[in-house]
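This protein record is not my work; I was only asked to verify it. The record follows directly below this note.
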Amino acid sequence: MPHAKANVLQALEIDNHNAEAHATLGAIHSGYDWEWESATDEFERALAIDDKLSSSYCWYSAHLVCLEEYEK
């Protein structure tokens, strides 16, 4: 996962308006880093850039379900 995170961060350095990269970083923050707020921020940024990107909705919904379970 560290390589994936490094690659997505590099992609965002090249183009910070890349919705897929923001969604992927959100998934990494959520599933690997457990950085809940950062994950939420990245998913919301991805959706603000492209609200038709289905993977953002898929990963964001999974993130929200995990958050709900974690907070129980």
Q: What stands out?
A: The two ends are 27 Å apart (CA to CA). Helices lie at 2-14, 19-33, 36-49, 54-70.
